[in-house]
Design brief:
This protein has seven helices and four strands, in the order αααβαβαβαβα. By secondary structure, the protein is of the alpha/beta class. Bound molecules: iron/sulfur cluster.
Length: about 220
């Protein structure tokens, strides 16, 4: 198996020239340089939709007004305020319920109505949906991200916040949520919820991950 990429894209770029629109520095494979104008326009047209425009303008303003000053928790509260959200849904991992309670307390203090549902709500055994019984080593009850989304949909939340949903479960939550979702916590049980810690150490302590291993 070769590690050579077949198609070059932004993940192979050292120029990052699109940041300032410096056309003379674009690499040959640059996605900006080789962009299908129709696709670009299709995306731009989407920002004309009311919700998309509201999100983009307010997200940009939060970034601009508090760049490097506000934490993600504060930015989330500020963003929710600026898009006019009144009721916030929290889809939380059971393991992060204490953190979610603290966040909910903050939201309530800031005047939001809050409704939260943890991943194990419904208490359905994993085996009931065909998950192998060996997976019960991490608990018998399944996480239920679709139920989390459906309950928050029923509650008619204006904005949902994902706190520590498992990889893949988060995908289904995003898929089924009616309201926009922002992620406050990306769960990583090993790093204290900081996935970048591994990426920063990939050439040192985690270099083994980069090596071919046919047994994997
Ligand atoms: S758009 Fe072009 S310049 Fe920007 S990161 Fe991608 S390849 Fe690099």
């Amino acid at each position: 198996m070769t590690n050579e990429p077949l198609t070059l894209s932004c993940i192979d770029c050292a120029a990052k020239a699109c940041k300032k629109g410096e056309a003379e520095k674009y690499p040959a494979f640059c996605l900006t340089k080789n962009m299908d104008p129709a696709l670009l326009q299709e995306a731009l047209d989407c920002y004309k939709e009311e919700e998309n425009s509201r999100v983009m303008i307010n997200a940009a303003n939060v970034e601009s007004d508090f760049y490097g000053k506000m934490t993600r928790v504060e930015e989330t509260v500020e963003f929710a305020k600026r898009i006019g959200a009144k009721k916030i849904g929290i889809a939380t991992c059971l393991g992060l319920l204490e953190e979610s309670k603290i966040f909910a307390k903050l939201l309530r203090k800031k005047g939001f109505e809050v409704f939260g549902i943890c991943c194990k709500a419904g208490a359905v055994p994993k085996v009931d949906i065909g998950i192998d019984a060996k997976c019960e080593n991490s608990g018998k009850t399944m996480c239920n991200p679709i139920l989390q989304a459906k309950m928050l949909n029923q509650e008619q939340t204006d904005l949902n916040v994902a706190i520590g949903l498992c990889v893949g479960h988060d995908s289904l939550f995003y898929k089924y949520s009616d309201a926009l979702v922002t992620t406050l916590v990306a769960k990583d049980r090993v790093t204290g919820h900081n996935p970048c810690a591994i990426l920063y150490n990939m050439h040192h302590y985690y270099r083994g991950l980069m090596e071919d291993n046919e047994q994997k």
